[in-house]
Design a protein that fits this description.
The chain is an alpha+beta fold. It has 28 helices and 15 strands. Helix 2 (44-54) packs across helix 3 (76-87), helix 19 runs antiparallel to helix 23 and helix 25 runs parallel beside helix 27.
């Protein structure tokens, strides 16, 4: 039901306005249009504070009841707030309350009218009004008392009033949520507010993400370990700029804006701990705000060793262990009896306490070896718990030899865990070949194997058979694809990807041979995929074998980023008798441009002799490359990654097969190219 303005005016005009003592008012049960379900803007306490400060600004709507009482049909929350003030003795029991008296037959309409035509104030107007009150000279505490809220609430509403007018307009249009507006208000710079909102993606306009954008580069005082260690008080005393967030759950939350100053203060505070650690006998102590593993990844490590126990410690350990044994024996006796649970648990607790004493003594026996501490150091830093933490026993790379000598002189005892007392990572050397060069070289090798396989169907079929056997027999690798492909064989054309590994791969003889074969088959095969199987069935065995050989060849893989000890294609290369000198030659573009001058001299010495390498020593890199090309012009030299390695050989299995082994037909017939052609 919705009333027109004329109907509402008529009700008001016919109704007298007067004052009624509070103790004559009661809430009507028959004429209330509002029965709950909505969330009021102000709480009863806030409304009571407002009435106490400014009086009842909007009259209640009442109906005359029996015995001089008046039933309130509109204004129930105001009545409840008045009752709260009376209970607190803030107003008298007969406090005059402004009311509008309406006839009983118009009461429900009047109640509905008040609620229907009431337009609540927009929060943005409320924020501005609070700011105006402060601007008029009222204190935050006075405004808070007037509205029954805390001073923090007043400060927050004033802060919201300072948001950029552009963003406030969007808030009024419900295009910015209140949560996001509070985050925007946490910074004072309007331009920064507007940029942050503009950079926020439409699908992620959430307060948490907006806060991340606005606080990037700032340090949270209550979460960052270094900030907690230094403390906000010390930081601000040193002149550090900060920003407080009135809208955080904890109004004491502070954002620190000067990270270098915070780090400086933390280092200065940690120095006291560092002096104590250095006095223990270490060679050096680094001070860091945080321990970064990558900074010390090349450092060695010194471990604790177990020292001999003193007579007193040995006697105490023996006594404690005897007492523990006594209690365990008694517990075993009680385990088979009923009704002794209390004594059992008491003995168990005593045994645990004695065990803790044993552990404390044994821990004290594990110490840093004094004779080796002089070659090691420590890092003092702020731990995750915002307290000083120490990483003990690090060995600098430049101290490796001295530490090794000291360990030998100390007899190199074992650490407390039985491991070596000193752990020194192997010194890393620069690889001879870069990852890019190794990938290029191994790609050339793959292309050469693919090309040579074209004329060796016996090796191609043997390689395919071996791979299928490894997957389907040894590993039990079986997969069915329903009504899809009838065979569980996946093939990838690796030949086409080799161009990405080598510059100008197209000029390679191996590449060209494979491409010629591909083009030949492309002209013979049907264009319709479903017609390929019928076409293959019509071909001779020799044609089918040749096609299969080509397909197997194009699936060969084996490109590496670092020079491997062995390669997946070693077996195929050995079976083919692969000679990479037929397919690759060391030139400037293929090799020498990608290695150091020292490596060039090493290669020339190996391939052509020291006399050929000697003149190149005084040349610059470009001239040395040209000289190396000339020196190796007629020499068949290969880098290690292109040289053949002996593959693992199959062991004789006739004796291991056992008496029940199934004889394999044709075992005595080797698989050769001639045999395949004959088939």
């Amino acid at each position: 039901m919705k009333l027109s303005k004329a109907e509402v005016d008529a009700i008001i005009a016919a109704s007298p306005r007067t004052f009624v003592p509070f103790n004559k008012l009661l809430l009507s049960e028959d004429y209330q249009a509002r029965t709950g379900g909505s969330t009021p803007t102000l709480s009863i306490a806030e409304l009571a504070a407002s009435i106490k400060e400014s009086g009842v600004l909007q009259n209640l709507v009442v109906v005359e009841g029996a015995r001089g009482r008046y039933e309130v049909c509109a204004g129930g929350r105001r009545l409840e707030a008045l009752a709260l003030l009376v209970s607190r003795n803030d107003i008298a029991d007969n406090y005059p309350v402004p009311v509008l008296i309406v006839p009983a037959d118009k009461a429900l309409i009047a109640s509905l009218a008040e609620n229907c035509f009431h337009v609540p104030m927009h929060p943005a107007d409320e924020f501005a009004a609070f700011a105006k009150l402060i601007g008029q000279g009222k204190s935050v505490e006075d405004v808070a008392a007037a509205f029954g809220v805390t001073p923090l609430v007043v400060k927050r509403r004033m802060k919201l009033a300072t948001v950029s007018p552009k963003l406030m307009a969007l808030f009024r249009e419900d295009k910015i949520s209140l949560d996001c507006l509070m985050v925007l208000a946490s910074v004072d710079d309007h331009e920064k507010q507007e940029q942050a909102w503009a950079n926020l993606p439409s699908w992620n306009r959430h307060a948490d993400y907006l806060r991340q954008l606005l606080t990037r580069g700032e340090i949270e005082s209550d979460r960052h370990p270094v900030a907690k260690y230094v403390t906000v008080k010390a930081y601000e005393k040193a002149g550090g700029p900060s920003r407080r967030d009135l809208f955080s759950d904890d109004d004491k939350k502070v954002y620190l804006l000067d990270a270098p100053l915070l780090e400086k203060l933390a280092i200065e505070k940690l120095q006291r701990k560092a002096k104590q650690v250095l006095a223990e006998g270490w060679k050096w102590v680094d001070v860091r705000t945080r321990y970064v593993y990558d900074e010390y990844v090349k450092y060695g490590e010194l471990r604790k060793a177990k020292r001999p126990s003193t007579e007193q410690e040995a006697a105490e350990l023996e006594s404690l262990q005897g007492q523990i044994a006594e209690r365990h024996n008694r517990m075993e006796e009680l385990a088979d009896q009923d009704g002794n649970e209390d004594e059992f648990y008491k003995l168990e607790q005593e045994a645990e306490a004695l065990g803790a004493q044993v552990e404390a003594i044994e821990t004290a026996l594990v110490v840093w070896p004094v004779e080796l501490m002089a070659q090691a150091g420590c890092v003092v830093y702020v731990g995750d718990n915002a307290a000083p933490a120490i990483r003990y026993g690090l060995v600098r790379p430049e101290d490796r030899s001295d530490m090794a000598q000291a360990a030998r002189e100390a007899g190199s005892p074992e650490g407390a865990g039985g491991e070596s007392l000193v752990s020194l990572p192997a010194a890393k050397t620069r690889p001879v070949h870069s990852e890019r060069l190794v990938r290029s070289l191994t790609a050339h090798r793959v292309a050469a194997i693919q090309a040579e396989l074209l004329s060796r169907p016996d090796v191609a079929i043997a390689a395919l058979t071996a791979q299928l056997a490894a997957k389907l027999v040894l590993d039990g690798y079986r997969r069915l694809y329903g009504s899809g492909d009838p065979l569980t064989i996946n093939a990838t054309d690796t030949h086409g990807t080799l161009r990405t590994e080598v510059e100008n791969m197209e000029v390679s003889a191996a590449w060209q041979q494979l491409e010629a074969e591909r083009q030949a088959w492309a002209t013979h095969l049907p264009e319709d995929v479903d017609a390929i199987l019928p076409w293959v069935l019509q071909q001779s065995n020799a044609t089918v074998v040749r096609l299969l050989t080509f397909l197997i060849a194009t699936s060969v893989t084996g490109v590496y980023g670092a020079e491997p000890d062995k390669q997946s294609t070693d077996g195929i290369a050995a079976a083919l008798g692969l000679d990479m000198t037929k397919w690759w030659k060391a030139t400037g573009p293929s090799y020498f441009n990608h290695v150091s001058k020292a490596r060039i001299l090493e290669v020339v010495t190996e391939a052509a002799g020291a006399n050929a390498a000697s003149p190149l020593q005084a040349l610059k890199k470009d001239a040395a490359v040209s000289g190396a090309e000339q020196a190796l012009a007629g020499v068949a030299w290969l880098p290690g990654v292109l040289r053949n390695r002996e593959p693992a050989h199959a062991d004789a299995a006739s004796e291991d097969a056992g008496p029940g082994a199934m004889p394999m037909a044709g075992d005595e017939v080797p698989v050769t190219a001639e045999a395949v052609e004959a088939a």
